[in-house]
Design goal:
- The complex is a heterodimer of chains A (about 350) and B (about 300).
- Chain A is α+β, with helices and mostly antiparallel strands and about 350 residues long.
- Chain A has two domains: about 5-235, Rossmann fold (3-Layer(aba) Sandwich), CATH 3.40.50.300; about 240-355, Beta Barrel (OB fold (Dihydrolipoamide Acetyltransferase, E2P)), CATH 2.40.50.100.
- Chain A has helices at about 45-50, 95-105, 110-120, 135-150, 165-185, 195-200, 220-225, 230-235; strands at about 5-15, 15-30, 30-35, 60-65, 65, 80, 155-160, 190, 205-210, 210-215, 240-250, 255-260, 260-265, 275-280, 285, 300-305, 310-320, 320-330, 340-345, 355.
- In chain B, strands 1-2 form a two-stranded antiparallel sheet.
- In chain B, helix 1 (about 1-50) packs across helix 12 (about 270-300) and helix 4 packs antiparallel against helix 7.
- The chains are: A alpha+beta (about 350), B mainly alpha (about 300).
- At the A-B interface, strand 6, helix 2 and helix 4 of A face helix 8 and helix 9 of B.
């Protein structure tokens, strides 16, 4: 599929501080793409430039082959949902949803039909005559979604739409948003700082940091194959461990010393350099006894354990270095492992992410 | 043992309740000074005024000892007095409308400003309130009188040959009132503008509304509570104003407050003055009631978001 939304070398500065730095991105039609990053990474600024609330300093924005970056927001035909819902407080739910249609001079009967359909879609049929302040946060956000969708926009822009909702409602709403998005088939950009949210709902994620896109990929690839240090640290949790290159082989492999054990991993570093690795806590495997004499596992002491419901977190120590392991309680019963006891730790070389450094 | 614990717990609750009760009492106690002042200096005189307005006039004592409706009947049946009443209301209404029109853009710009500039601009708006009423009004006299700044300039330029009657007219009274009352309007409109969530404006634009449409469909309706609140203040202050009409209007432009003063101070007819004064209070009260009714309707969706 060809790209539907195209951002080309977008730049934006505020008071000489560059907030978006030469950003390029392509989004396919019907796709739901998340902009994920910490606050101040430029994700909201980028969204506001797509919506037209901010002008681009440089670069181009194209939607369906037409450049839109010079159009004012009211001519861009984009449906936007805001973090604080942004419903018109002086209008009923019906009038809120009908607002965009009235501006488009749609016939009265048609407006009525489409508004009711829209409210039906977000499961708020029967709420037409309520005022926004008579609704709960989740309901307000659904009205806001209906209002954005009834105008059949070219793009649906969601600016941290779930941040003001409580945890449980947030999960419900995100499933609902995905359902509706798939049903309508609208190309969607979802801005969030919540990685779990992004991983759960996106077709692809653009991880942003410091005004740049660090990586664009499908959620599993973002999680399993982070391309930069920032992505590995920002998405999920990581242990940082050091390893020393002992020997370099011809086929881009090296033998490294790692927690006092030798491991062979793909690497092109020269001998005696120290390498930094990331490994996710859930990729660390623990057994409480050696299987065989040839078992290559590393002996570590359990410093502390923490029960987390479905899994248990073990804080392991060896040679003054700490390693965190998250083990599912169905795989290893936590009662079998005592604090201060010694366990055998297995690390799969494939799970070691080489830290690139900056 | 278990029972003991329970009763201890209950004791604690009891204590807590007593504390709360005391707190509520404390709150009332704190209100007392204000309440006292309010009752003694406002409600009591008003009652005295009401009682007095139903008394006959006694040339020697001022207030006679007979009960009568004559004071009100006299006012309501005399076209001269009714004209004063109507003029007073008209001046207050026109002043209100003018302040709305001039305050809205000012309030809008100040709300958009930030930091120090905003403080300075607000201070500037409040400046008419910082100058003594009398001085401010004599300032207008200098500007508006027959050989004042405006007339002199226009005559020197040969645009007019006779001075325009600017002073001692409804125009000058309205001008003076608008000048002193517009800060109230600006402040209350600013209050509503600042309460508008900026993303609501963005939402309107993204739904296809151009700036003009956004203004009339979203921005302006959301400022109505401020406009109404400001109107109530400006109207009630305008309808009861005395110094400004006295200086800028003089005897030619009599208003209710002036009439009351005249009856009490010059004619020493206290009961009649009381009746006029009470009618003035009545008008202001009725206006506020009507306004708050409308406000309730307008605010249905707005209020505090």
């Amino acid at each position: 599929m060809s790209s539907y939304l195209k951002l080309e070398n977008i730049r934006k500065s505020f008071n000489k501080t560059e907030v978006v730095k030469d950003l390029s991105l392509e989004i396919k039609e019907g796709e739901i793409m998340s902009f994920l990053g910490p606050s101040g990474c430029g994700k909201s600024t980028t969204l506001n430039m797509i919506a037209g609330f901010l002008e681009v300093d440089r670069g181009k924005i194209e939607v369906a082959g037409e450049s839109v970056h010079l159009l004012p927001p009211h001519k861009r035909e984009m449906g936007m949902v805001f973090q604080n819902y942004a419903l018109f407080p002086h209008m009923t739910v019906f009038d809120n949803v009908a607002y965009g249609l009235k501006i488009r001079k749609v016939k009265k009967q048609e407006i009525r039909k489409r508004v009711l359909e829209g409210l039906e879609m977000v499961r708020l049929a029967g709420y037409e005559n309520r005022y926004p302040k008579e609704l709960s946060g989740g309901q307000q956000q659904r009205v806001s979604l209906a209002r954005a969708l009834v105008i059949k926009p070219k793009l649906l822009l969601l600016d941290e739409p779930l941040s003001n909702l409580d945890a449980k409602l947030r999960q419900e709403m995100r499933e609902e948003i995905v359902d509706i998005q798939k049903k309508v088939g609208i190309t969607t950009i979802f801005v969030t700082h919540d990685q779990e949210e992004a991983l759960a709902i996106s077709d692809r994620i653009a991880v942003m940091y410091d005004g740049r896109i660090e990586q664009v990929d499908i959620p599993s690839a973002i999680y399993n194959n982070p391309k930069t240090d920032f992505v590995s640290e920002f998405i999920g949790e990581v242990n940082q461990v050091k390893g020393k290159v002992l020997e370099v082989y011809k086929d881009n492999k090296s033998k490294i010393l790692f927690f006092g054990k030798e491991l062979i991993i793909p690497s092109d570093s020269s001998q005696d350099t120290m390498l930094n690795f990331f490994i996710r806590p859930e990729k660390v495997q623990i057994v409480n006894f050696r299987n065989t004499e040839e078992d290559t596992g590393i002996e570590m002491k359990v410093d502390k354990k923490m029960f987390l419901g479905a899994r248990t977190r073990y804080f392991l120590k060896v040679n003054g270095e700490q390693l965190i392991a998250d083990i599912s309680n169905t795989v290893l019963n936590p009662s079998q492992i005592q604090e201060e006891s010694t366990v055998i730790v297995h690390l799969n070389p494939d799970d070691l992410l080489l830290r690139k450094g900056r | 043992m278990h029972l003991q614990v329970k009763s201890n717990h209950e004791l604690l609750i009891e204590q807590q309740k007593k504390k709360w009760k005391r707190k509520r009492l404390d709150a009332w106690l704190l209100l007392l000074p204000t309440l006292g002042i309010f009752l003694f200096f406002f409600v009591l005189p008003l009652i005295v005024l009401l009682v007095m307005s139903f008394k006959t006039f006694d040339a020697s004592l001022g207030v006679g000892d007979q009960w009568t409706l004559q004071n009100y009947l006299k006012f309501l049946s005399d076209p001269f007095y009714l004209e004063v009443l109507w003029r007073t209301i008209k001046i207050a209404l026109v002043t209100t409308v003018i302040t709305i029109v001039i305050s809205f853009p000012v309030a809008y710009q100040i709300s958009r400003a930030s930091g120090r500039l905003k403080n300075y601009l607000t201070l500037l708006v409040l400046s008419p309130l910082l100058i003594s009423m009398v001085i401010r009004n004599y300032g207008w006299v200098i500007v508006l009188s027959n050989n004042g700044v405006i007339n002199k300039t226009l005559m020197d330029l040969g645009i007019i040959s006779q001075p325009l009657t600017l002073l001692y007219s409804e125009f000058s009274v309205i001008l003076g009132l608008a000048h002193v009352l517009f800060p109230y309007m600006v402040l209350s409109i600013m209050g509503s503008i600042e309460r508008i969530d900026p993303s609501v404006i963005k939402a309107s634009q993204s739904l296809g509304a151009n700036p003009l449409r956004t203004f009339f469909s979203v921005f302006f309706p959301l400022t109505l509570p401020g406009i109404f609140a400001g109107s109530v203040m400006v109207f009630s202050l305008g309808v009861s104003s005395f110094v400004t009409p006295a200086i800028l209007g003089g005897p030619q432009v009599k208003v209710m407050a002036y009439l009351t003063y005249e009856q009490v101070a010059t004619m020493a007819n206290w009961p009649y003055g009381a009746a006029i004064g009470f009618l003035l209070v009545l008008i202001a009260t009725i206006t506020i009631v009507i306004y708050s009714r409308i406000l309730n309707r307008v605010e249905k969706g707005v209020a505090i978001q």
